[in-house]
Design goal:
This protein is an alpha/beta fold. The longest helix has 21 residues, at 216-236. The N and C termini lie far apart (45 Å). The protein has helices spanning 13-24, 43-51, 66-76, 96-106, 155-161, 180-190, 216-236, 239-258, 262-280, and strands at 3-9, 32-37, 57-61, 82-84, 90-92, 112-118, 135-136, 151-154, 195-205. It is 42% helix and 17% strand. It contains nine helices and nine strands.
Length: 289
């Protein structure tokens, strides 16, 4: 199978270089790699140029926004059977693309497959709620066992369902700074496409800039991402699910405060407020960076 890779990046050349090195080491070599550069300097171009004699990689540009960059990358691809969208702070194990291809081959009707995100020593992955077995995802488990930087999409799926919603995701012009991958998967499910999770497919996350729990930036990020979550719940889930997705972090905030863990309580509270903002479409004042 022909595996394509699209990477949207902004100003992190060293991380991008690590990712491209991992693509070079794949047992199933990618047939097409598009790096969508959203930075204002020439460092990303230099990294891409340094790999052009070893990888089928080329550089494109786009306006700011992760979803915009991914859609530009999709449009630039040539022939492929499935495509991946790793973040620039991730890398692949040598068999990651081969495992994805094998999973697609064993399930011809499946439109998309999510692998498993792992961290490095001392830096756990941000998203850690994956299942421990291969399974078909539904509208609930897609939230806990799929994330877009671990997902692989058939070309036919993207043609039928469309690309990423550019109103969602990091860097979007809207307040909804996450949820674009889950939204795409849920749209696919509604159109009848099966979605799988396969823990044998592994992606490594480095998180070099992850703030600590007590930092204001951590709470800002939680609030922004939670707004996207709330927006996607409003689109795809009923009122009962919308209420539950707000009540859970509120309850966790109360429990954390009772245990004297004030920073954690504030983090849960920002998640709850952000989800309310996404569900209602009304953005309140919040913590500033």
């Amino acid at each position: 199978m022909n595996a394509a890779v699209v990477v949207s990046t902004i100003g992190r050349p060293q991380l991008l270089d690590r990712l491209l090195a991992s693509l070079h080491e794949q047992t199933l070599r990618p047939s097409d790699v598009v790096v969508v550069d959203q930075s204002d300097d020439g460092d990303t171009r230099k990294v891409v140029d340094s790999w052009m004699d070893r990888l089928p990689v080329r550089r494109s540009t786009s306006a700011r926004g992760l979803s915009i960059g991914r859609n530009v990358g999709i449009a630039a691809l040539g022939d492929y059977d499935f495509v991946a969208f790793p973040d620039d702070d991730t890398s692949y194990l040598p068999d990651t693309l081969a495992q994805a291809a094998a999973a697609f081959a064993s399930a011809p009707a499946v439109g998309a497959i999510s692998g498993r995100l792992v961290g490095t020593p001392g830096r756990p992955a941000q998203f850690t709620s994956f299942a421990d077995r291969r399974m078909r995802l539904d509208h609930r488990t897609v939230w806990t066992s799929a994330i877009e930087n671990c997902c692989f999409f058939r070309r036919a799926f993207l043609r039928a369902v469309g690309g990423f919603d550019e109103d969602l995701g990091v860097g979007a012009a809207s307040p909804w700074q996450s949820g674009e991958g889950t939204d795409l998967l849920l749209r696919g499910m509604k159109a009848g496409w099966p979605i799988l999770f396969d823990p044998r497919i592994v992606i490594v996350e480095y998180n070099p800039e992850l703030p600590s729990l007590g930092e204001r930036a951590y709470h800002v990020k939680a609030r922004r991402y939670a707004r996207g979550t709330g927006r996607v719940f409003r689109r795809h889930h009923g009122i009962g699910s919308q209420v539950r997705v707000v009540v859970r972090p509120l309850a966790a905030a109360a429990l954390s405060l009772a245990r004297g863990r004030r920073a954690l309580a504030l983090w849960y509270l920002q998640r709850a407020i952000g989800r309310i903002e996404g569900i209602t479409g009304r953005v309140l004042s919040g913590p500033r960076e």
